[in-house]
Amino acid sequence: MEYAVISPNLFKRLDEVVEKFKGKYSLIITTSGLSFALKKGIDVDKALDEGVKVLAYSHKFQPLEGLSVEETEAVLLAKDLNYYLITADDKVKEFAEKEGVKVIII
Predict the structure, then answer these.
(1) Quick check: 89 and 96 in contact, CB under 8 A?
(2) CATH number for domain 2-105, candidates 3.30.360.10, 3.40.50.1010, 3.40.50.1370, 3.40.50.300
(3) Per-residue confidence (pLDDT) for residue 100, from 0 to 100
(4) Contacts of 87 (CB under 8 A, 6+ apart)
């Protein structure tokens, strides 16, 4: 099964994203994405119960120009591990594609 990182811009629709892609991809959120969700009061428990994994980007990094730390970590993790990135944001899509990341836009 292939892997896909869920971009933090989709966290308000996390249940919908998990339902749509579970079984097709092993789904990942990043550690900074999890922190972002908790700060924003977004419930990720159901997604974690459904098997979404939390991974950290293991290198020190600076945010890509114009992207948040959370979005940057998602892009860089997808790039380094050759995973897909699931996003709804055109700017994130553009940055990801420049980095050679395969993007699924919804």
Answers:
(1) no
(2) 3.40.50.1010
(3) 97
(4) 7, 9, 10, 74, 93, 96, 103, 104, 105, 106
Site of tokens 């897909």: 84
**Residue where the block lists tokens 């994130």:** 92
Residue 80 has pLDDT above 90, yes or no: yes
Domain boundaries, the chain: 2-105
The pLDDT tens digits for 82-103 are 999 999 999 999 999 999 999 9
What amino acid is encoded at 8 in this protein?
P
The one-letter amino acid code at 97 reads E
